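Our consortium's second objective concerns turning raw sequence data into structural hypotheses that experimental partners can test. To show how far this objective has progressed, the report includes one record in full. It was chosen at random from the queue rather than selected for favorable results. The single chain below, 314 residues long, was entered without modification.
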Amino acid sequence: MTQYIIRRFIHAIFIVWGCATIVFFMLRAVPGDPVAVMLGPEYTPEAAAQLRKNLGLDRPIYVQYAKWFGNIARGDLGKSITTSQPVTTIIRNALSKTLSITLFAFLIGIIIAVPIGTLAALKRGTAFDHIASISTFVGISLPAFWFGIVFILIFAVKLGWLPSLGYVPISEGVWPWFKHLILPGMAAGVGEAAILMRFVRAGMLEVLGSDYVRTARAKGLRERSVIIRHALRNALTPVVTVAGLSLAALIGGLVITETVFSIRGMGRVLVNAIFDKDYPVIQGGILLIAFVFVMANLIVDILYSFLDPRVRYG
């Protein structure tokens, strides 16, 4: 297992480097000039040439790449073209907000999906199963921003229980931080729960008809033990795959939810950087997202061996 993890981690480094390299060259192939965006109405050929020189954009692309790669190897993601802030600072500030929402939404998804998906499989064909299936389709079909607007109208405007906008860091208090996470977390978590619920139900239906579940019941084991220890554990294998990838996708996919709740997370930072042609911020954000995806895949593979003893990595 240790050798497998080391091997996968080395592969992960090359994958992340490859993704970042592709983004580096593709950004420079896209029409548009970040210098023109920065200067705006004050654009003149002389000012543009001087700014391009200051930013190093006048050098050949292979020189820019070599400098960028050398900085990355030292852990330096550069500075934002538009704000002159270090990219690491921008990403760190945005990532703390996105991670808080992501983990809360993921927790909501797991809490809803696992018990309801399991009960829907156990009560297959009943009214509960039909209601759960309809709820799943509704959760998948409706976008997160719609749930966000509905939650704001109900819990913030009508009832006044929760704040509608903004983000408070945990350093200012656990309850204010958590209170500002509830609505965006619920908005993002509904869709996550709907996706996971379908996989839990499908996995449970497949496992409940297997021979080892029938054998466990024939031995006289309690139904609760059969469901939790034998059926659910094996049914969660495909769910773990989807959950791991969904968790990684939420890191860069919360842009609309963050916009609805006026939270400057990773999604909004990347979108603004794309509009501003802010190459260092875009490259740093993509580098982070690629790393999260690769690490999520590695963690999922490791979890397989705990959920299914038959899985072994050489």
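The partners drew two points from this record. The longest helix spans residues 87-122. The chain has a mean pLDDT of 80. Both points have been shared with the crystallography group to help prioritize constructs.
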